[in-house]
Amino acid sequence: MVKIPIGEKVEINLWNHQNRHGMVTYYHGTMDICRAESEFELKKGDSAYVVESYDSFVVVVPEDEYTEIIDNFTSSKINYEKLAHKIWEILKEREVDTGGILTIDELYSIFHRTSIQSLISKKLLKKMLKIANAPYDHLKFEKKMYFALKAHEVVQDKAQLIALAQKYPFLTLDMIQSATGWSDVRINRMLNHLVKQNRVRKDETYRIGTRYYFVSTIPQ
């Protein structure tokens, strides 16, 4: 009978994909074989980490790009720098669909489908919004907090707005949303960025509402 410590690395020996259980090999002085199960896809020869341990039985998760974030499974010690970079990668992967912007709930849902799901909480993600020197921005819009790529990185959104502006003397939020289908936070983030860059002039009056004039369309 063997009990493998939590956090140890094992190798998949045999695996039943349909029932998601099999056998793992544990090398620690001697070679021990132990029953295992996992909700993740595994195959013979894969490396995995033990996250639950009982007599001659373990629950494992695959060794992958997400488990690299964990410095120590036993103490659930997370490398915040690596986690911040992984958050940036997730935002970047979704740049086309979301403009690189996600709520805490959306990001939590993504992590909850990964090998480190048990170690990522909404409380931890709220903490990640405030860490220093993060590779991403945090936004507050209509009482919600968002993770966001830095605006200058979102080249496609900027190019799309500039192309749209070539068709009209000015743009409004409704015009942009109708043309792109973007969320309000996505539109406002990019417009505010372009205003700060002096690429856009914001004109706001009670009578006509808010209009955005791009450099090439600003009346002389």
What are the key terms here?
OB fold (Dihydrolipoamide Acetyltransferase, E2P); 220 residues; 3-stranded antiparallel sheet; elongated; Arc Repressor Mutant, subunit A; 3 domains; 7 helices
What is the assembly state of the chains in this entry? Answer: single chain
Relative strand content: 25-35%
Distance between the termini: 84 Å
Helix and strand pattern = EEEEEEEHHEHHEEHHHEE
Radius of gyration (CA) equals: 24 Å
What is the percent of helical residues? 25-40%
Strand arrangement across the biggest beta sheet: 1-2-3-5-4
In short:
With 220 residues, this protein is α+β, with helices and mostly antiparallel strands.
Task: Write structural notes for this entry.
By secondary structure, the protein is α+β, with helices and mostly antiparallel strands. It folds into three domains: 9-63, Beta Barrel (OB fold (Dihydrolipoamide Acetyltransferase, E2P)); 76-149, Arc Repressor Mutant, subunit A (Orthogonal Bundle); 153-217, Orthogonal Bundle (Arc Repressor Mutant, subunit A), CATH 1.10.10.10. Helix content is 30%, strand content 31%. The chain has seven helices and twelve strands. It has helices at 80-93, 95-98, 104-111, 122-128, 155-165, 173-180, 184-196, and strands at 9-16, 21-28, 30-37, 47-54, 57-62, 70-72, 77-78, 101-103, 137-141, 144-148, 200-205, 209-214. The strands form four sheets. A five-stranded mixed barrel has the order 1-2-3-5-4. A three-stranded antiparallel beta sheet has the order 8-10-9. A two-stranded antiparallel sheet has the order 6-7. A hairpin with a 2-residue loop joins strand 4 (47-54) and strand 5 (57-62). It is elongated, with a radius of gyration of 24 Å.
